[in-house]
Amino acid sequence: MKTCILKISGDREKDDRIIEEAGRIIKEGGLVAVPTETVYGLAGDALNPGSSRKIYEAKGRPSDNPLIVHIARLKDLETIACDIPDTAYALAIAYWPGPLTMVLKKKDIVPKETTGGLDTVAVRYPVNEIMQRVIKSAGGFIAAPSANRSGRPSCTNADHCAEDLNGRIDMIIDGGEAGIGLESTVLDLTGERPVILRHGYIDKAMIERVTGPVDVETVATEKPRAPGMKYRHYAPKGELTLVSGKAEKAARKILELSAGHADNGGKTAVICAHEHAALYEGAQGISLYDAGSLNDEDTIAHRLFSVLRELDEEECRYIYSECFDTPRLGQAIMDRLTRAAGGRIIRL
Ligand code: TXA
Ligand code: MG
């Protein structure tokens, strides 16, 4: 299949044509990678079981891992979900459109293929204007997982989508960099208390301000409520190890471990905060990846997936990363990094 890559230019007429074409492809059962404010999504018709099957196939994703349904009008929520609690409306008023996904009881109109066999549906109303227009042009309900091949880091730009999905989908809309760079917060609202299933830009405190106390699904459960959380994720091809502890101590440990790899020819890479780059200056055989300043956690979040992809391009064999326990997004960042490292962590 030939994948056409079309760039949003700001020329209203041309952009309208791209959006219309994307809508037509999706309505006919095809797939289009579309930018959102979090990461790029792989969009198909959420109400068409055949489209969802195609999404799983294109991504190489296990079909028990449910897809998020994206809407572009609040009232469309009631077409696909039932028994919607008041907290869902309160959260929608506070954070929609935006990077919050709510898990609710589904209506029959949503095929089980889209929800991985579950009787719940995850719903998000994204703020990105291109995505909103594609949703409307495609009929209102778009299933869109992150547009990466299963197991790879999510895509924050159109080049990443092409790397993973060129030849496997109909179209990629290039709308520039995804602003946030981490996927949405997933919140389960089907129980007594809301439960965070995946950390994201809308953090626990922001949710609790609206709903009162919320629980957090622990990462280690064998049968997680967000089925996607049990799969290996984001992992670079090299062996990534996280090192937790004071920056100076972590640097000493990383330099010592890297020296041990110097003889067998494997490239070593280090991911660290901008402020700590000097600790690695002059070290032989290490490529340094500056994740951004600790005073700017948005940038660290934004760069994370790009850095993980670059490590593959550079064929880094051993990778060490500092831990980024930043105030608001630290949990979301560390959740992705811990998964990418397959849980490998050295605590000093
Ligand atoms: O920011 C985002 O959420 C991006 C953009 C494209 O919107 N989408 C995204 O989708 O990250 P995906 O499929 O890569 O991740 C969805 C996560 C998975 O961990 C999945 O298991 C969980 O949400 N999920 C989806 N539906 C669910 C449901 N009904 N119950 C529990 N978890 C669900
Ligand atoms: Mg994903």
How are the secondary structure elements laid out?
Blueprint: E1 4-7, H1 12-27, E2 32-34, E3 41-45, H2 49-59, E4 68-70, H3 77-80, E5 81-82, H4 86-95, E6 100-106, E7 120-124, H5 129-137, E8 142-143, H6 158-165, E9 171-174, E10 185-188, E11 195-198, H7 204-211, E12 215-216, E13 239-244, H8 247-261, E14 268-272, E15 286-290, H9 297-313, E16 318-322, H10 330-340, E17 345-347
Parallel strand pairs: 1-9, 2-9, 4-7, 6-10, 11-12, 13-16, 13-17, 14-15, 14-16
Antiparallel strand pairs: 2-3, 3-8, 4-8, 5-6, 6-7, 10-11
Helix pairs in contact: 1-5, 9-10
The structure holds threonylcarbamoyladenylate and magnesium ion.
Characterise the protein shown here.
- The strands form two sheets. Strands 1, 2, 3, 4, 5, 6, 7, 8, 9, 10, 11 and 12 form a twelve-stranded mixed sheet that branches.
- The protein has helices at 12-27, 49-59, 77-80, 86-95, 129-137, 158-165, 204-211, 247-261, 297-313, 330-340; strands at 4-7, 32-34, 41-45, 68-70, 81-82, 100-106, 120-124, 142-143, 171-174, 185-188, 195-198, 215-216, 239-244, 268-272, 286-290, 318-322, 345-347.
- Strand 10 and strand 11 (195-198) form a beta hairpin.
- The protein contains ten helices and 17 strands.
- Helix 1 packs across helix 5 (129-137) and helix 9 (297-313) packs parallel to helix 10 (330-340).
- The chain is 31% helix and 20% strand.
- The chain starts with a strand and ends with a strand.
- The chain is of the alpha/beta class and 348 residues long.
- The mean pLDDT is 94.
- The structure holds threonylcarbamoyladenylate and magnesium ion.
